[in-house]
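Shipment paperwork, digital attachment
Item: protein structure file
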Amino acid sequence: METPLFADGLEAQYTGASVVKRENSGGGFFTTISVAAGISRVSSPRILGQKTSADIEGLQYGMGFVLFMKDGYLNLLEGYAIAGNTTALDLTSVKFTLIHSADG
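Attachment content:
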């Protein structure tokens, strides 16, 4: 895992998170996230997950992911297609397999 120091805090935020907005951009997606009040901030870099990728059903080369934090809270998850178009994919139910990097 790329972010072991932040895992507990991120998991707590994820448990109290909700999706505010989803957008399939054609080149991937943007998911805006809101974290419930009362959950502790995470002291982390603003950008996480840069070593995270997945094989995605319907995409030949899969996707990479970036998690953006704002003021210590989960804020935006971006998924980007390595190649190909995501417009025809239902990204809320597509099957995927996480790829673990050699150093993660």
